[in-house]
Amino acid sequence: MQVPERSIDLTTDRQSPENLAVFAGSPPPQALNFRVHELLTANSPPEGPKSAAGWAERRQALIEKLRKRVFRAFPNAATLEPPVLGTESAGLREWTLLSEPGIRVRGLIRSGARRGSSRLPAVVYIASEGEDEESIRRTLVQVLNHESLVLIVFPRGVDEVPWRRTAQRDVLRNAMQLGRTLDSMRLWDAMRSVEALKQQLDADPQRITLVGRGVSGVLGLYAAIFDESIAQVVLLEPPTSHRQGPIFLNVLRYTDLPEAAGLLAPRRLIFFGRIPDAYQPTQTVYRLLNKPENIGLTMSLEAVVEGRYNHNFSSGY
């Protein structure tokens, strides 16, 4: 085509990584790039409530925002299929629930000793990443010897054989395209498990206690916020901010954990061992509602299930 031949110089000069890096690999210590998303989206902390009426107004508005802005991608709550019961081992029976189409949640259940016609109190433990069956049994050793019904729920990706890291990374990225996060999906699993417990099993719907360690404890807290029938929540080693988890899309635009925990009031909120200082706003809410005794400490899950809260021990500070 009579196009003149072109000559391209492909010689290269190899540079060290330091010369190729911005700021020679040493960014300024005051750099904010790694958390700029927090600075651009987080609102100022809301002013604490001054009265019970003020809190009631704030509570109603906040729950509405959570439903419409944070958890709007929850699946439709279709009719639950009965959980499938499997084999029993060491007092716990395999339990499988269809949480949403294509998602089966594993659990372990132990039926309590029913007395007469009365229904049983129930303890629902939401398992965390890294926990195995044996460690959970040790945590629940007191209630496993109690007459109550016990359900251990392993939300999706949490089990003795967890998701591979690559699979979990893909779920984290892809779920956000649908307005969900891994933690919001696990919250849904916990909520559906509680609903199945009330509908299909012999649990007293007014005497359900949700328990969890770390982020999973907060999943139990949110499950109780949206289900007014749940009597109480026990938190073991809870995070103090949603920046630590659980991760919910948009939640920090509207609230953070110390205020969100107050949404449970006046129902009981129990901390195992100590109440972190960050939860002072939660205690303020309980005082405004004249229920300061309903937020407290325990060292005995059995006592909480039995309704005994005056343990007279140090807070651990």
Would you write up a description of this structure?
- By secondary structure, the protein is an alpha/beta fold.
- It has a single domain (66-306), classed as Rossmann fold, CATH 3.40.50.1820.
- 34% of the residues lie in helices and 19% in strands.
- It contains twelve helices and nine strands.
- Strands 1-2-3-5-4-6-7-8-9 form a nine-stranded mixed beta sheet.
- Strand 2 and strand 3 (103-110) form a beta hairpin.
- Helix 7 crosses helix 8 (215-226).
- The protein is globular and about 95 Å long.
What structural class results from the helix and strand content? alpha/beta
Number of strands: 9
Label the CATH architecture: 3-Layer(aba) Sandwich
Assembly type of the chains comes to: single chain
Radius of gyration: 24 Å
What is the strand arrangement across the widest sheet?
A: 1-2-3-5-4-6-7-8-9
Strand content: 15-25%
Topology-level CATH name:
Rossmann fold
| Overall tally of domains | 1
The arrangement of helices and strands along the chain is HHHEEEEHHEHHEHEHHEHEH
Into which percent range does the helicity of residues fall?
25-40%
Counting DSSP H or I runs of 4 or more residues, the number of helices is 12
CATH superfamily: Alpha/Beta hydrolase fold, catalytic domain
The biggest beta sheet reads: 9 strands, mixed
Low-confidence stretches: none
Q: State the distance separating the first and last CA atoms.
A: 85 Å
CATH class descriptor: Alpha Beta
Shape: globular
